[in-house]
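$ fold --in a.seq
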Amino acid sequence: MHSNHAAHFNLVAAARGAMIEHGFQPEFPDGTDAELAAIETQVETPPGAGLKDLRELLWSSIDNDTSKDLDQIEWAERLGDGNIRVLVGVADVDARVHKGTVIDSHARSETTSVYTGVKVFSMLPTELSEGVTSLNENEDRAAIVIEVCVDAEGAASNGKAYRALVRNRAQLAYGSVGAWLESHGPAPAKIAASADLAAQLKLQHEAAQCMLGRRYQHGALDLETVETRPVMLQEEVVEIKPLEKNHATSLIEEFMVAANGVIARTFQEAGVASIRRVVRTPKRWSRIVELAEGLGTKLPGEPDSKALNEFLLAQKQKDPDHFPDLSLAVVKLLGPGEYVLVKPGQPSPGHFGLAVEDYTHSTAPNRRFPDMVTQRLLKAWFSGAAQPYTEEQLEAIAARCTQMEDAARKVEREMQKRIAAVVLAKHIGQSYRAVVTGVNQHGTFVRALDAHVEGMLVHGGKGLDVGDRVTVKLVSTDPQRGHIDFSA
């Protein structure tokens, strides 16, 4: 396709079409505006009404620099015994969006916000997710606070959760905070202006690094895939840039894993049925073994996350340039996660990639419906009220969430390809290093590493499998169909 045509391709319209094609309803239903008007006039629940007043703590949030739907904030303190007490505040969306309302029913159907690169299709109206249910800077908000103590070995204990009133003192971004924590860049302005905030973040970082080290010892996988974001100029995509992990993204990930574990164990101990997020043991373990063998390492015949991570850590040291290729191959072979009902007394299948047995989704209720459900289950248990969902309803919700998360992944992947097709239209004939990411009845698929895009290998794919490295040439792009074609 000629680059002029590609440059004027309507990506937002394409994103909306993809949403509808995959079963989403981008428009909010009738009755939404009336509910919003009532919600926006609702007064925040005062402290004392079942809420602790924690507004004076030096809370901060770290997220993408473009994020407006802030789900969580963090705070930590050093205890007398040297341990670090970590608090994660999660937006109490249920305090505004009640079960059975028009807005709730829409969220239950959509189950997730979808981030297409050119437009966010929010599960909740943005007046809520970016407004009164977002933990925006310098605003009082109701929250669920999840607390845990972390020792020098990274072990977490004394986990508990309760309702509170909080105030985000500093909205921060991954890129600038990560560069500062790693001494690669200056302190962001808000941190430079506050020695207390700087000390607070250093303490959080210390706790997170201890927790990460412990999870690695237990077999959590140190994977390093390349995510991308489009760079917009006057509403047109002009470039694709990689999003890289850093110490700030790691800090938030560790705190979220710990917080989700606390909630899962709370339900387990209380005998409350809940929805868990699981990644089962990989069905294509034999191919992972084969990949490792090709790189000089023998893995056990049966799935073993600890052995796999030891291999990954060694490869990262040995060949850091190609480690993202290997990570991507392993991610594909592990397969996607799913939501499942876990009944009281029933063991959870666990999360193979995170090396945790107890894991639910509870920390992003503005963006994910299962987190809203978890919030309601937890609040009912707090108050001694009857649980708001039956086990049959939870099972149906879990299945719907898995289905729509898969659909969201497809929409996001299609839009990544469409965006890439627009950007790459000017580069037909160029060669790229690539890694094979999928082989099925439809063909062989690769990711071009220098361009950070995926496409189909239309010539020369015979005999290749996931994880193989190959040099490819860009043959054509088609933004309308989301096709990027390469030849080997």
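$ fold --in b.seq
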Amino acid sequence: MSTLPPTVPKPSPTAAASTRTGRTGWMRLPHCRRRRALFLSVYALFCSSLLAGALATYWTMQTGTPLPSRVDVWDIFYPEIRTTGALTESPGHDDDRFDILLLGGSVLEPTWGEVEPLLSERLEAECPGRWRLFNLARSAHTSRDSLLKYTHLSGQQFDLVFVYDGINDVRMNNVSPEQFRDDYTHCAWYRSFEKRLAAGTMSLPAAIGQQLETLGEAIGRGAPQDETHAEFGREIKTAASLGRNVAEIVRLARERGDAVLLATYAYYIPPDYTRERFDSQLLDYSYRADGRSCGAEMWGRPEFVGPVIDAQNAEVRKLATGDPDTLFVDLHDRMPKAGVNFVDPCHLTAQGSRIFVDNLWPAVLQQIRKWRTARGIPTG
């Protein structure tokens, strides 16, 4: 019996068309080699243009300036210095505006509360059109960031510098005593900044690489990596560091003729706090409708967070008591500890923000009156 030869399946019309046109996967390439090379060259140029445009947009959004070939390290780590105008508008004691600088973390950011807009309303009512507010406070920033930013503004003068740091410094405790560094360089953010600053300017790819490098670094910039790191938070290591950072800001301000307003850090962790109750919204907090709130575990073990802030607040009180020229408000003592004022351990409700500004305002007004007197500006 003869055997039939194996059947060879005919190519489908689609496959045949792909072979004739040089189609590969999702891309249809010309069959002619010369045209194919031209097409790929144009396509590569198109992709490069898209990438360059994306990088330029990213840079402009970050810093508010056109894309340069080399970038300033400060613009990568602290773009708010430039975007707020604190570096470029040249505030000075001899101009006709009351200039106030805010240093701190997310509590002062408009995305997390109403402190800035409420303070701006008061300033406008008191000195219409004759004030400027430069808010350099940013999420996750510590007293070390505040000191670095203020140091960088050596050529500027402000009529009032408000420093409000505390809970983010608590994160820095979540390392062993052997790893801890007073300048917080055990945290990748500060370590990378010091390294990049020493090297000078950066290329944009290097800048993006830096951000990726520190993005996943848990020590210092986020919740503790594990229970071992969380346990290290029991030992209070940051109180002295925060005290030194704030003291240096006060010293620099005295040299520049800037008035400084210090405040203790207001926080509220209910006695029945647990993560489960927080996530289930069973605690005495006014949870935000957009869901933006942070459990105490963001900064360490809940039972450690309060004592660390208390120790840091003691350093601020001691510093303010020892310097009669420094304005001071004990916000932690004055802020009622109730969920109507807090959405989580530190971020404030609209009512909490009003209480916050109400307590600050007498000190701010005192400085405004001094500013008016020095310039012969009548009240109202």
